[in-house]
Structure formats: structure tokens, C-alpha cells
Amino acid sequence: MIASTALLVALTLLQGAGRPDTLPPRLAQARDALAAGKVDQAIALAKDYTQRHSDDARGFLVLGDAYVTRNVTGRYPAWRAYHRAADLAPHDPAAPYG
To answer: Looking at the whole model, is its pTM more than 0.85?
Structure first.
């Protein structure tokens, strides 16, 4: 329940107010993998993206969403990813656990 809520919130944030979904292909793949329940694949794709694009808050939101689905073991990595997203986009709505 928490993971699906977090995913819904993040997907809403990623779409932006009135803007079409403009995720880069790598992040779209990570989001799709997460929606299909392929958490490890989603984490790998999102980590790769954030390493190459460390200034893109969207990557850290997707990474946080992937980690949060791991419940206990993913809480701290999710928090770190959401915190980084908040640092990069301080005027955007708060990420879950941010």
C-alpha cells in the first residue's frame, strides 16, 4: 500500500502540472520496470541514470520509489534519493518521505 501510494505520488510529480510526461527514455524504462514489479531492474536503471545525470531530480524520485518498495531494507536509500531530489528541486512538491 505504501509503495503503491509512493509510486502514484511520484508519477504525478514526474508528469508536472499540465505538462506531458517528458521522462528521458532510461527513466521511463525504470518507471515501467517498477510498475511491472521488477524492482531490481528499476533500481539498476535509475541508479545508472542518476550517476550520469546527478542534477536531475526526476531520476532521484524514480530511484526513491524503487527503493521504497523494498520496505525495511529500502527505507534509508529511498530517503537519500528523495532528499537529493528535494535538494535539486526545492520548489517542487515534496517527495514522499522527503
So the answer is: no
